[in-house]
Amino acid sequence: MVIDFHTHTFPDKIAGRTIAHLSEVGKMPPHTDGTRTGLLQSMKDSGVDISVVLPIATVVKQERSINALSAELNVKDHIYYAGSLHPDCEDIGGTLDFIKNSGLFGIKLHPDYQGVDFNDERCVHIMEEAAKRDLYIVTHAGIDVAFRDHVHCTPDMVLEVLERLSGVIDDKLILAHMGGYELPDEVLEKLVGKPVWMDTAAVMDLYPEKCVEIIRAHGADRILFATDSPWRSQREFLSLFHSLPLTDDEKEQILYRNTKKILSI
Ligand SMILES: [Zn+2]
Fold first, then answer.
1. How confident is the model over 198-240, as pLDDT tens digits?
2. Which range of residues forms the domain containing residue 126?
3. How far away, in angstroms, is 31 Cα from ligand 1 center?
4. Which pLDDT tens digit goes with each residue over 103-140?
5. Phi, psi dihedral angles at 198 (to 5 degrees)
6. In total, how many domains does the chain have?
7. CA 7 to ligand 1 centroid distance, Å
8. In this structure, what CATH number is given to the domain that contains residue 17?
9. What is the Å distance from ligand 1's center to 162 Cα?
């Protein structure tokens, strides 16, 4: 079984221009057309059984429609969804209750696209309230290719949040991109062994040896297989993952066993 924990799709109406724009800004060619149908086709072509879509509310007024759509589509066709909160959310409790009651596993934050630092008071408050409701928090971590001059979620910011929310957020925080995109050495130095999960999205191809080092140091029981489709190919990432020098047991943990716990399946 294979679960891809980190993918993106967009509503059919806006997928074309959104993909074109993001692809230009990030200088990354897309591997699907950005629609849900495109993701389903990619899953079929690559042998991914379940995908998790992580939407991002980049402005506060998108929240309601994003969360309603996630709630409506969740689990159908083997695609799971997170909800999303914007740091300027005016009804954090009510929005999180809706997400929880809809059966979603958690929320996605993207500090770069939401214009905040990860340790901002508003983010900390959202994470505290989410964790109290037993929701997971997935965040972009490390450099973002579209915002290279300011890293909005550094390993130091993660350490600060873990300390401030100690006992509340433990085991609820999932750091995308192996804890920090393009920052593997700092992740090795500061984040391995902390009570967080890390996903493999968009970095396994950049520095596979470092990824194995992080997996070994952090523990395969805290790593989730993920691609960042459409920005990486599910098929290529899966064959790359299989080529890593990990044991069969470690691979099974990362490919689906850990993620099944998070999705409660
Ligand atoms: Zn992503």
1. 999 999 999 999 999 999 999 999 999 999 999 999 999 999 9
2. 3-263
3. 13
4. 999 999 999 999 999 999 999 999 999 999 999 999 99
5. -130, 145
6. 1
7. 6
8. 3.20.20.140
9. 22
